[in-house]
From TrEMBL:
Residues 30-383 form the FAD dependent oxidoreductase domain. It comes from the Bacteria. One of its GO terms (cellular component) is cytoplasm. This is FAD-binding oxidoreductase.
Length: 408
């Protein structure tokens, strides 16, 4: 499936990772990771750090799946507000998820330090804007529940928001615990570190056609007929994980993004914060190191790549109009635009861990708009599973929360 189209900024900004290495022989390893994006790279990091033998397999060039189209924001908030998530999964699990995401922002920074991968990591604040009076009421409740659970949060009224950010919304939630990265640069930088240190093999342009469960693990077979024999399979392929899942666990959405020409940095808003809103689907924006502005949103249900792509021009224009309405004093000229497909779950949480009764087929599927923090959590959980360490986070993110689970 075509995961994105148009011209994602990160592919222009970065030199493409030069690694062409299709699998041309039968191999054995402890762990086979399927997917070379940010999720697969973080899993590889956690395993290589523990000296656990692993390989990465990807049907594409390295990092050119969904990670290349990500707008690369790191927030502890997820798509479901905490007040809603409590109703869906209970207060203990909901608060745990928010705190896990908060911790993962710092954990990603440490991974980049350990691997000397730049990743353009920058800690910045977040504004969550009320889109209407219903949004104000949501933010008031959200502020109270986050404050009660010791999450970093401030409530800004209309006057405070106008003074701080210069927008006309009625209210906002603010925190200074967010960050932004270059997702493609992060993924390829982490992988390159372990390639250079000869701790990891990466097989690009290699498609797994089928798999067979064995007593001590799995045998994967490529379209060329070569085999990968492993104890564990880790599926880190996002919504393309469907070939390994016995039932559908997510819905597909199409999303759109535009990036401006460079603007005068003096015109950019307070601390170049991440900005998003309570409306669903929400508008979001960030800046880049070279003083560009990324605006994303206009999400619609996914039906087919050509239908998604046909809407790119009109969706780009809509994003431009929304930005100019919020910041009329900032000149915005679109230089690149792109669209992609992503997944969402019923409760806004990822799926991490083994499918029931298949303990060595592991998944780390960071579905949702905040998938990078979920990827960090998933990598840590997967590492613990492989090492035989119980991880209580499985109670929050595991497949047991699904109703009517089908067996493979």
């Amino acid at each position: 499936m075509e995961l994105h189209s148009g011209l994602p900024y990160w592919i222009v900004k970065n030199k493409l990772f030069n690694h062409f290495n299709p699998l041309k022989t039968n191999i054995q390893t402890k762990v086979a990771i399927i997917g070379s994006g940010i999720t697969g790279s973080l899993v590889a990091h956690e395993l290589c750090k523990q000296n656990i033998a692993c390989v990465i397999i990807d049907k594409r060039s390295i990092g050119l799946g969904s990670s290349a189209a990500s707008t690369s924001q790191l927030q502890y908030e997820i798509d479901e507000p905490l007040t809603n998530l409590i109703e869906l999964v209970g207060e203990d699990h909901a608060v745990r998820a928010y705190k896990d995401c908060l911790n993962s922002i710092a954990d990603i920074r440490e991974v980049l330090k350990e691997t000397k991968a730049d990743g353009s990591y920058k800690q910045i604040p977040t504004f969550l804007l009320a889109s209407n009076q219903r949004g104000v009421r949501l933010l008031e409740k959200e502020y109270e529940v986050r404050k009660k659970n010791d999450l970093p949060i401030q409530f800004l009224n209309k006057q405070q928001l106008a003074k701080t950010l210069g927008v006309d919304n009625e209210a906002a939630l603010y925190n200074d615990s967010s960050a932004q990265i270059d997702c493609y640069q992060c993924a390829t930088g982490i992988l390159n570190h372990y390639l250079k240190n000869k701790k990891l093999e990466i097989y690009s342009h290699t498609l797994i056609e089928n798999y067979r469960k064995q007593k001590n693990g799995y045998t994967l077979t490529t379209t060329e007929g070569y085999t990968v024999t492993c104890e564990y399979v880790v599926v880190a392929a996002g919504f393309e994980a469907g070939d390994f899942l016995p039932q559908k666990v997510m819905t597909l959405l199409s999303t759109y993004a535009i990036i401006s020409q460079p603007v005068d940095p003096k015109l950019l808003w307070h601390k170049r914060a991440l900005i998003w809103e309570t409306k669903n689907p929400y508008l979001y924006m960030r800046t880049t190191d070279d003083n560009r502005i990324i605006v994303g949103g206009e999400d619609i249900p996914y039906s087919a790549p050509d239908i998604r792509d046909d809407k790119l021009r009109t969706k780009s224009k809509a994003l431009e109009r929304k930005f100019r309405k919020m910041f009329p004093e900032i000149p915005f000229v679109t230089e690149m635009s792109w669209c992609g497909t992503f997944s969402a779950t019923a409760d806004g949480l990822p799926f991490i861990g083994a499918w029931p009764r298949h303990p060595k087929m592991l998944f780390t599927l960071g579905y949702g708009g905040n998938g990078i923090t979920f990827s960090m959590i998933g990598a840590q959980v997967i590492s613990n599973i492989v090492r035989g360490i119980h991880d209580p986070r499985l109670e929050v993110y595991g497949f047991k929360r699904l109703k009517n689970k089908k067996d493979c």
